[in-house]
Amino acid sequence: MQKQEKIIEMFDEIAPTYDKANRILSFGVDVSWRKKACAYVLKTHPKNELDIVDVACGTGDMIGIWQMQAKKMTKKILSIKGIDPSRGMLEVAKKKFQGVEFIQSGAQSLPLESDSTDIISISYGIRNVVQRQEALNEFARVLKKGGNLVVLEFTKRDKGGFVAFFRDFYLSKILPFLGALVSKNKSAYEYLPNSIEGFLSKEEFIAELEKSGFKMQYFQSFSFGVSSLFVAQKQ
Ligand SMILES: C[S@@+](CC[C@H](N)C(=O)[O-])C[C@H]1O[C@@H](n2cnc3c(N)ncnc32)[C@H](O)[C@@H]1O
Predict the structure, then answer these.
(1) First to last CA, the chain
(2) Which CATH number, 3.40.50.720, 3.40.50.150, 1.10.10.60, 3.40.50.11440, labels domain 3-234?
């Protein structure tokens, strides 16, 4: 089986326990990272009525946050779509949301028209996309000129220091143990720290965004660099 297919199959397997595991493993702080990301983009985007696509939507966590923050900031969501290649994750998402269109597809080839959306978000998803540069090119194609790409991701940290030691210990020892306990799938939660290690540094990812025609607009690092927010603009 190809690497990408294996990753999708793994998400199919953990889908029923994904939400529970996510809240436990992140101590709930991922919600505040998501809220800050959506609030920043809604505040700075010049339009008041927006079309949004959430790629690698999983069970729909980002979709819920987009809806909540838009309501708070009196911005109108004209349409919101969730896209993910995992049937299992989409099945959970569909039960949680009404009025959201869910499409089964990978980020590297989006079944969407060019220049058709104002915002694309991808949270904790891009490191799972094997054909990453193709996906970034797709995001640039589908976004309208001036539209925003919003990426939340765990990025590689420089080694050294107490915080780095604690973070590495948590990711390599505690997280796989707790993840396996909740999901009964040990290998899936061993994949997580490995996929973070195998991902890019902040600088390397920004270089890839620029290669696809994006201009970096905003960067924020959360919780001592555990999670990073990248907001880029289509030129
Ligand atoms: C860690 S989950 C994140 C889900 C959700 N965005 C969240 O924040 O909770 C990663 C998601 O990436 C999806 N994924 C894996 N390969 C993908 C690809 N090639 N294109 C798009 N999504 C992909 C998985 O199916 C999974 O739902």
Answers:
(1) 38
(2) 3.40.50.150
Q: Which of 20, 36, 128 to mutate to test the pocket of ligand 1 (most atoms within 8 A of CB)?
A: 128
Q: Is 128 in the pocket of ligand 1 (CB under 6 A)?
A: yes
pLDDT over 70 percentage in the chain = 98
pTM given for the model? 0.95
Q: In this predicted structure, what is the pLDDT of residue 56?
A: 98
Which residue puts its alpha carbon closest to atom 1 of ligand 1? 124
Please indicate whether residue 55, judged by its CB atom, sits closer than 6 Å to ligand 1: yes
Closest residue CA from atom 26 of ligand 1: 58
List all residues 6 or more positions away from 212 whose beta carbon is below 8 Å from its beta carbon.
133, 136, 137, 139, 140
Q: For residue 51, which amino acid is it?
A: D
Q: What pLDDT is recorded for position 158?
A: 64
